[in-house]
Design goal:
Elements (H helix, E strand, L loop, with lengths): L2 H4 L2 H26 L1 H7 L7 H7 L6 E5 L5 H8 L3 E6 L2 H14 L4 E4 L13 E7 L9 H10 L1 E12 L6 E5 L2 E4 L10 E3 L17 E3 L4 H10 L3 E8 L30 E7 L19
Helix pairs in contact: 2-6, 7-8
């Protein structure tokens, strides 16, 4: 029996998170150079998605907590929109890059190095908006605890906003050019999937990733039910047929930032967005939650 078999589930999760932190530390400065958004910010241009700009709305004078902010590009974009922003990430290198970019651009933002699950021990207060976006859920080991932390940092009347790749994409592979097939389970699995070192970075295909990483799979119902279970009220859940990165080789893009599947026009959700409100007890109606869905 090897060491991995002797570890408890919690120990495996912590070990996976530690490996992911090393992975992100190594990539932070690569992404400063690889992300198109960094230069767009320097040029004073818009980097936030038009969908989230519409769905989040006016943030002037509002406090915004950005979870899993990485190198802080979106955090700083919301600061430019007039929000009082706090960005959180577990990578020390990513936070250092975010602070350097903040100082270079002359913007006001607070950045905190912390695992999302440890945040209540290092940050106090409440926020009008808690925000998380694009490639975040797969790095979370426990959605129920995550949702409770989201709720913890929301002020009454505030809302949580999420934009993320659609979970159905986790189940698909492009095994032949232009043709998608179901190749992986859609539903959540307790153990994370390990990705070995040696592949190309998603943002810079000339950079070889030097560390393994681990990702967790969550279904759409996992996300929704975790937030409802944390006492939040779902305002909307929307789905769109374009994606913020090139997941499959056959994807095409007109601007290098938004990608579509030309062979499946309007047939497959690629992104979902969600807004959940923190309502007061007086506003809340009776709720019955059944989270027994999944594989039977």
């Amino acid at each position: 029996m090897d060491e991995g078999e002797l570890m408890t589930g919690a120990e495996r999760h912590r070990d996976a998170e530690d490996s992911n932190r090393v992975w992100w530390d190594a990539l932070a400065r690569v992404h400063v150079h690889a992300y198109k958004e960094v230069q767009l910010l320097r040029d004073g241009k818009e980097i936030l998605d038009e969908i989230e700009l519409c769905e989040v709305g006016d943030v002037r004078g509002k406090s915004l907590l950005h979870l899993q902010c990485h190198i802080g590009t979106d955090t700083l974009a919301w600061a430019r929109k007039g929000a009082t922003v706090t960005g959180v990430d577990f990578s020390a290198e990513a936070i250092a890059c975010a602070e350097q970019l903040r100082d270079e651009l002359g913007l006001k933002a607070t950045f905190i190095q912390s695992n999302v699950y440890d945040l209540p021990s290092v940050l106090s207060g409440e926020f009008d908006i808690v925000y998380s976006s694009r490639g975040v859920l797969c790095w979370l080991r426990d959605l129920r605890e995550w949702a409770s932390i989201v709720s913890r940092f929301l002020s009454p009347g505030g809302f949580f906003y999420l934009m993320e790749s659609h979970p159905v994409l986790n189940a698909l592979e492009e095994e032949t050019p232009g043709s998608l097939t179901f190749a992986n389970p859609y539903f959540h699995r307790t153990d994370a999937t390990r990705w070995e070192a040696g592949g190309a970075d998603y943002a810079d295909d000339t950079h070889t990733v030097g560390h393994p990483s681990y990702e967790w799979v969550w279904s759409l119902s996992d996300v929704v039910n975790a937030l409802i279970g944390a006492g939040l009220e779902i305002k909307f859940l929307n789905e769109y047929d374009r994606l913020f990165f090139k997941l499959f080789p056959s994807m095409t893009s007109e601007d290098g930032r938004q990608y579509r599947l030309a062979q499946y026009p309007g047939m497959l959700p690629l992104v979902f967005t969600l807004r959940a409100n923190k309502v007061t007890d007086a506003e809340r109606g009776p709720t019955t939650l059944d989270t027994t869905g999944g594989v039977i």
